[in-house]
Amino acid sequence: MASIRGLVIRSQSGFYSVETEEGVVEARLRGRLKQGRAAGDIVALGDWVWVESAEGGEVMIEEVEPRERALVRIAPRPQGVYEQVIVANLDQAFFVFACSEPAPKFRMLDRLLVAAEQQEIPTGIVVTKIDLIGKREAKKLFGHYEKVGYPLFYTSAEKKQGIRALKEALIDKISVLAGPSGAGKSSLLNLIQPELALRVNEVQQSTGKGRHTTVERKMFPLEEGGYVADTPGLKAFALMDIEAEELDGYFREIAPLVVDCQFRDCTHSGEPGCAVVAAVEAGEVHPERFESYLRLRAQHED
Ligand code: GDP
Ligand code: ZN
Question: Is the pTM of this model over 0.85?
Fold first, then answer.
């Protein structure tokens, strides 16, 4: 086998399943690639790599292409901070929230959006269970996110509404869907492709708490092209090293206003001449979003 290019679709304990034009091969990482790069995962789910047969029939990963982006978790270790790569080259994340049962937690949604902005991961919002309150009411709850620039998908698994639009958004992309449990993610995935939810959930269970085995990570191919990575859960989007001062930059509608504040280091929490507060009062920034900003700011100040 000459050197061929492939996509890492599964990783566990130093073994990688690499999808190539010649099928899926099981590969290990060439030793020399491991040297001198202990600050983060060298190869991860979603990486494009080059594999080659070595002596003894083993397939080795010889090269890892630079990542366009990655969903990373910063793991502090005694030797220093380690960047654990959850999914490399992630094209998009969808945050899944029900419009009712359970009631949407906008603070959580905003926190997730901030994390995605920080990691420069394109994001969409999937609103589920619109049969419970109707699309019009659902739009009253979530519509302002669309104005800010986030694509919104209004769906009902029950009434099979909005499924096709979501499915189309997934084609030929590497995506992650994350949301609180009970939001209806499995029901959606099942409609998009039967068995998909089942498989994603199996992985979640086998990597659940209390196990000491190395975490298995997988991406599931979609029939029409693209992959859904097994959901890393909400923790993967936990805010990492965000400074209180950077937060306003991660709220899309607040970021462009900051230059108009009277003080360069304005925190938008009561200073005179604050353009952000003025925009909230003028109804240009949604009060719930501003509230999320203030809460996060308080949490990240110390
Ligand atoms: P997950 O935990 O996010 O995977 O959520 P599930 O897909 O398991 O759904 C949680 C609950 O919400 C289940 O009782 C589903 O029957 C219900 N559910 C899911 N989608 C819908 C929907 O579109 N409309 C309504 N009314 N209920 C739904
Ligand atoms: Zn201000």
Answer: yes
User: Closest by alpha carbon to 91, among 222, 3, 181?
Assistant: 222
Residue 89 Cα, ligand 1 centroid: separation in angstroms? Answer: 29
Ranges of residues in the chain whose predicted pLDDT is under 50: 207-213
- Does any ligand 1 atom lie closer than 6 A to the CB of residue 158? yes
Give the closest residue (by CA) to ligand 1 atom 24: 129
Among all bound ligands, the one having the nearest atom to the CA of 268 is 2
For 169-204, write each residue's pLDDT tens digit: 999 999 999 888 899 998 998 999 888 777 666 655
What gap in Å lies between CA 230 and CA 197, rounded to an integer?
Answer: 9
DSSP 65-79: PPPS-EEEEEEEETT
Ligand 2 centre to CA of 278 (Å) is: 9
Q: Which ligand is nearest to the CA of 159?
A: 1
Query: What domains appear along the chain, each with residue ranges and CATH number?
Result: 4-65 (2.40.50.140), 86-230 (3.40.50.300), 244-300 (1.10.40.50)
Question: Tokens 């599964």 appear where?
Answer: 10
